[in-house]
Sequence to fold (308 residues):
Amino acid sequence: MSDHDLSHSEEGAEHDVVVVGGGPAGCSAGVFTARYGLDTLVLDRGRSSLGQCAVVENYPGFPDGIGVETLSTLLEDHAAEAGCEITPELVERVDRRPDGPGFLVETATGTTHTAARIIAATRYGGEYLRPALEDDAFETLDGNDGRGRLDRSYPDRDGATPVEGLYVASPSKAADRQAIVAAGRGARVGIAVVEAARRDRGYPPALAASYDWVRPEEGRAEEWGERETWRASIAERWPDDHTVDRRRYVELREREIDRRLAAYRSAEEIESTAQRGQRRLLDRLDEDLVLERAAEIAADRDAVEVST
Ligand SMILES: Cc1cc2nc3c(=O)[nH]c(=O)nc-3n(C[C@H](O)[C@H](O)[C@H](O)COP(=O)(O)OP(=O)(O)OC[C@H]3O[C@@H](n4cnc5c(N)ncnc54)[C@H](O)[C@@H]3O)c2cc1C
Fold:
């Protein structure tokens, strides 16, 4: 059973989360929601800030810079690998659902999607959110035909807005000006959405925060490989006044233990993930450059063999 099957509040919507925008903020948010197991649809089309960069020279991890197309592709690859469905559609309208909880998303092609939660992640635009928001979410700009733009200080630091379930990762007051900061903000909002979904499912606040950490199995104290240890730990942290029925408690507790145990990786798994990660990067490198480098490596190895 996936964690998604435990969903209560999200019943009736097609997706747990719809992310509008698949740039640094949106892909990053989607990585966190989808890795947790929330059904996440990313809709991405339209004016892009990342698309206007010449190259990106200040995104940590790429010491000689990275081309915009390569970075965009890697961001999308990562979101897709985490489990996001990514569709090239322009969102025209987000509104609260008239016939149930959550939101209705309409695209330029006339497609509609329903979602329990929305993460807006578009540095430009935001008009599409107007039907779901109050007018005070928008600030009027001079010379903009009286049309407003989304007030960058409207969402809180986790992207939450006064409309429950509607989050804004981008635009944002401090975080949308550099790609890495936008990605960090997207991550923060994704984590907040996961926490909200866990609260809906019945986890008490003390257990609702969820860290996406992967740990080495080696060095783990033996007792933390035992379900009983986790059961005792969860019972201790579960507040007396947070009541759910016994069946639900057991379901949530066991699911949480599955998650915690799955976060430990054996030495072989760590090694094979590291190799898979490198192969994935190779797939996205220019083939001529890969062949050129491979030829250099082969020549270097031959030279070493001759000299020994
Ligand atoms: C000229 C220029 C140069 C820059 N140079 C740098 C730099 O060197 N280094 C740096 O760190 N930052 C740079 N930036 C800033 C950087 O581009 C942004 O900080 C970053 O891209 C913000 O990420 P984001 O995900 O919030 O938005 P975006 O990158 O704009 O991504 C939003 C995505 O949402 C999609 N979208 C938009 N509207 C909709 C809609 N209605 N429906 C569906 N999808 C939609 C877009 O197609 C886009 O893919 C530069 C910006 C510009 C304009």
Notes: The radius of gyration is 22 Å. Residues 267-307 form one domain. The first strand starts at residue 15 and ends at 20.
